[in-house]
Amino acid sequence: MKDRLNKQDIMDLLPHREPMLLINELKNIKKLFSATAIVNVKKDSFFVQGHFPGQPVMPGVLIVEAFGQAAAALTAHGLDKSTYENKLVFLMNIEKARFRNPVVPDCTLELNIEAIRSHGRVWKYKGEAIVGEKKMADAMWSATIVDRK
Q1: Closest of 31, 24, 10, 20 to residue 107, by C-alpha
Q2: CB distance 36 to 27 below 8 Å
Q3: How many CB atoms sit inside 10 A of residue 67's CB?
């Protein structure tokens, strides 16, 4: 099993596509346990133009979305393909989301995520978003794997 996934590998696991595929890489993968996702926040990222003109900031809700995508990729990568094929992962809840510092372009946002537990199709995760040595955000969340309709 690979311990590093590029964007194409991630697209093979997730249904997300541009511009909503936020993670560029998944590395330091420990099967079904933890990984680090890389989000390249650029001056031409789709959300920058309007949030906020002259002082761009990555919306907190997109940081949470990136956490969810990283967790879904980590989980799908660790499961047998038949378990996630023709499935979607839906966010169920977000707990204790804290946004500590604004994420501004041009930076590399690292998302250190960890699967806390799973019960059937429901998984719980926690994560920290970091730029350099600075913590930008953290959260806990749950997601479920559902059949595509």
Answers
A1: 24
A2: yes
A3: 31
Answer yes or no: are the C-beta atoms of 139 and 95 closer than 8 Å.
yes
State yes or no: pLDDT of 84 exceeds 80. no
Q: What would the pLDDT profile of 22-79 be if each residue is shown by its tens digit?
A: 999 999 999 999 999 999 999 999 998 899 999 999 999 999 999 999 999 999 999 9
- Judge whether 77 counts as a catalytic residue: no
Q: Nearest Cα to 102, choosing from 129, 139, 65?
A: 129
Paired residues of 11 in beta bridges: none
**CB of 45 closer than 8 Å to CB of 104:** no
Q: Check 16, 51, 77, 119 and give the catalytic one.
A: 51
Q: Give the per-residue SS3 of 45-100.
A: CCCCCCCCCCCCCCCHHHHHHHHHHHHHHHHHHHCCHHHHCCEEEEEEEEEEEEEC
Q: Domain ranges in the chain?
A: 4-147
As a CATH number, domain 4-147 is: 3.10.129.10
Q: How would you classify the pairing of strands 4-5 and 87-99?
A: unpaired
